[in-house]
Design a protein that fits this description.
Elements lengths: L3 H52 L8 H10 L5 E4 L5 E5 L8 H15 L3 E4 L5 E6 L3 H66 L5 H23 L7 E4 H13 L6 E6 L6 E4 L1 H18 L4 E9 L3 E8 L27 H12 L3 E8 L3 E9 L3 H7 L1
Parallel strand pairs: 6-8
Antiparallel strand pairs: 1-2, 1-4, 3-4, 5-7, 8-9, 9-11, 10-11
Length: 392
């Protein structure tokens, strides 16, 4: 059975295909109508030109009333009748200014000459007149109409794609949140059982050092379950000394990574307060350290450096790994992106979500050089104690 997303995707593509078909059909029909209307206007002007020629004739048998009616019947097509020297003899549907009219007339004639081929009127006395004309207002509007229609259809197509992408993200988020909460729930029972077993083993003649390590790992599982349970909720960050928070997270990781990886820190002496959820932020640091260790293939250096200004706390994490191509600076944060043979590619995606969605910060690749290493930067809003005191 197809998923809801696949059904919506199919419907979206059908809608887009229908919109494209309608647009093409509309353009073709409009083009034919415009062409036909242009031909009709040309024929009208030719009749008008013939009427203008006949008016110069002195044949008394002509119906001048009919000719005048033809001449006056043109109410929409701009026309200019000129002699062989481009002097205007007559004009229709053109507004001439009261000032500088001669200059305007000259420019208007030149403009009409460049637009369409004139209709030549043979006066049968060796002289000629030239009739210049332009498209009517209706025809000009029709010329613009297909493009306006195409723009509207294009907007609808863009909206359809955005709606599809939004639906996809929303469903992925629901799956992610549901999976996380279910994982936390499933971990709860075995963790409770392990806590009970540790307490039971304390009553036996077991090496306390071993039990302490077991207890640390059980607490670690509790922390992991707590993190998963917070995915999808809005855990309230609290003012935390980011230096102390980093030190605790790194202290845990130092004993669980390769001994050939050295971690160095360059932290200010005084505390720096920022609003974070300690448990989730530790997850960020652990993922970045693991990412650096993988990039260095278990051997190298990872350096943490903190700097601050009035608004931000900036944390730079630099490894000596293989580096990231510049074209992949944003791609590395996409779900599923990984360079490892085994892995889901969710580490940096999770890091980005925690930093940006839960802490209102930013994370990006600050610098990377192939074969030399990469620097990730985390920016977090600085907690201002004076602002808090003022509110009180």
């Amino acid at each position: 059975m197809a998923s809801i997303y696949e059904s919506r995707q199919r419907l979206t593509f059908i809608f887009i295909a229908a919109a494209v078909f309608v647009s093409i059909a509309s353009l073709v029909i409009s083009d034919r109508l415009i062409e036909k209307l242009a031909q009709e206007e040309r024929q009208k002007i030719e009749v008008w030109a013939e009427a203008a020629r006949v008016m110069t004739s002195e044949n008394p048998s002509l119906n001048m009333h009919l000719i005048l009616k033809i001449m006056q019947g043109n109410t929409s097509i701009p026309v200019v009748l000129c002699d062989e020297n481009d002097n205007i003899i007559n004009y229709k549907n053109i507004d001439l200014p009261t000032e500088n009219s001669e200059q305007y007339e000259y420019k208007k004639v030149q403009e009409l000459k460049n637009k369409k081929h004139p209709i030549v009127i043979d006066l049968e006395d060796g002289t000629y007149q030239y009739l210049y004309y332009d498209d009517s207002i209706i025809l000009k509007r029709l010329l613009v109409y297909p493009y306006a229609q195409l723009s509207v259809v294009l907007i609808f197509i863009i909206i359809a794609f955005l709606a599809l992408a939004s639906t996809k993200r929303a469903e992925q988020n629901k799956v992610w949140v549901g999976f996380s909460k279910e994982t936390a729930h499933q971990l709860g029972t075995p963790i409770s059982s392990l806590i009970a077993w540790v307490e039971y083993l304390r009553t036996k003649n077991i090496d306390p050092a071993l039990l302490n390590e077991m207890e640390k790992d059980v607490k670690r599982l509790e922390t992991i379950a707590e993190r998963f349970s917070k995915i999808g909720s809005n855990p309230d960050p609290v003012p935390v000394d980011i230096i102390n928070s980093l030190a605790m997270a790194l202290g845990y990781m130092e004993n669980r990574i390769s001994a050939k990886v050295k971690i160095y820190t360059h932290f200010p002496q005084s505390p720096i307060l920022t609003l974070v959820n300690d448990s989730l932020f530790a997850w960020v640091i652990e993922n970045l350290v693991k990412n650096g260790v993988d990039a260095m293939e278990g051997q190298g250096e990872i350096t943490f450096h903190i700097e601050e200004n009035d608004k931000l706390v900036k944390i730079d994490i630099t490894d000596t790994g293989k580096g990231i191509p510049k074209s992949k600076f944003k791609t590395v944060f996409h779900p599923g992106y990984t360079t490892k043979a085994r892995g889901w590619g969710l580490g940096l995606s999770l890091v980005k979500r925690i930093v940006e969605s839960y802490h209102g910060g930013k994370i990006y690749v600050k610098h990377s050089e192939i074969g030399k290493g990469t620097t990730f930067r985390i920016e977090l809003p600085k907690y201002k104690t004076e602002k808090r005191n003022n509110k009180k």
